[in-house]
Specification:
There is one protein chain. Helix content is 45%, strand content 17%. By secondary structure, the chain is of the alpha/beta class. Helix 3 links the parallel strand 3 and strand 4 (85-90). Helix 2 packs parallel to helix 3 and helix 3 packs parallel to helix 4. It starts with 9 loop residues before the first strand and ends in a 16-residue tail after the last helix. 30% of the residues are buried.
Length: 165
């Protein structure tokens, strides 16, 4: 993980194929000191790349995009970077979209147009709820490689495998 200058700053990546929407969200987030936009991209593929490069705490992801939709991109991001919590957004707020977003790994769903107070509250809530995951990832990173590769042992001292727990 990248070193952080200020632990109280929530780093956000914005993903939407409409430039104006990205700029509006960026502007909204600039009003709150605790948010820092670390990137703004327009496609699902760019979102995956930007997430790996910027390592944000929160990814605000649109569902409908041309090259790779937000659901597929969220699925890829949550596998590759489990410390990045995705907040899905869409003009479509029906239950099927929300269900698919959550199945892909999104932590919350916002309808467009976005209400500023709802946006701020959602980011803060998701960030707070993701704290244990970030802590665990940092602890794992600080662990020596040989410890990470060690297989767990059961009470008898044998290697734990499926079926012999």
């Amino acid at each position: 993980m990248q070193g952080r200058q200020d632990k109280n700053v929530i780093q956000v990546l914005i993903v939407d194929d409409i430039q104006e929407t990205r700029e509006n969200i960026k502007k909204l987030l600039s009003f709150e000191e605790e948010f820092k936009v670390v990137g703004s991209v327009g496609t699902g593929r760019e979102a995956i790349r930007a997430t790996m490069e910027t390592r944000p705490d929160i990814v605000i992801m649109d569902i409908n995009m041309p090259d790779m939709d937000g659901i597929q991109a969220t699925n890829e991001i949550t596998k590759a970077m489990p410390t990045a919590a995705v907040i899905m957004m869409s003009v479509q707020t029906d239950a099927d979209y929300m269900r698919k977003a959550m199945q892909a790994g999104a932590r919350q769903f916002l309808g467009k147009p976005i209400d500023p107070d709802e946006l701020y509250g959602t980011i803060r809530s998701v960030y707070k709820n993701y704290e244990p995951i970030r802590r665990q990832a940092m602890a794992m990173q600080d662990m020596p490689m040989e410890v990470r590769k060690t297989k767990p042992l059961n009470a008898e001292g044998s290697e734990v495998r499926a079926g012999n727990v």
